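Letters spell out the chain; backbone shape is given numerically. Both lines appear below:
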Amino acid sequence: MQVHGRRSTRPLRSFFRRLVRDEAILLIGLLVVALLILGFVILADEVLKGDLAEFDRMVLTVLRTEGDLADPIGPPWFEETVRDVTALGSTSVLSFLLVTLVGYLVLIRKRGAALLMTVAVLGGIVVNTVLKIGFDRPRPDIPHTGRVFTASFPSAHATLSAIAFLTIGVLLARMTVDRHMKVYFMTIAVLLTVLVGLSRIYLGLHHTSDVLAGWITGSAWAILCWTVALRLQKQGVVEPTGGDGPSNDDTRPD
């Protein structure tokens, strides 16, 4: 009778463990978003006051050949490689990636994940566009070969690559229970995001503060979307991803 009683409480204890864990994740996610928003406000205030102008100029100058601001440091093949990297954060490449991934998620009947990806990227475009119009910061006043059509702050490439790559990384990580694969997916997502942002500075298309603001904006928006999606998932509105099955804690004997 005692053994039976212990076994009967296992599902209840597992439920409360999952409930506490999920609520903690939601609270942490919202806290991180709040901290990122605060960081953006502080950074934007410094930009508006011009306190970062000297720093931004110094970084761009260091990355230029001495005596020729039109020529980034390094051999020609490296500059061409950086142009290829920066294209990964372009609207055309990310749009193609979004359509491809959403189509795949719909085909495997992960419509909730497909909706999350769509809202994350399209919503990020709207947020970034509004911020660009609001701040209307000029591009760096040094020669560059890339063609630009919008204001400088925050960097759209940095913002959208953070949103797209980090969201894809999370989706892939949640579709596997292997911790090594989870770390691998997230590492690649972060690496791509960082490389795209750094490429914008190297090419002279953005100030360093533009890219930092883009990373902050993209990360905050992506985490907010994940947090909302997790809440909807727990309410049954969004279907769980492949890696959200019972954990080892749920099936471990007492």
Remarks:
- Confidence is low (pLDDT under 50) at residues 245-254.
- The chain has one domain: 9-251.
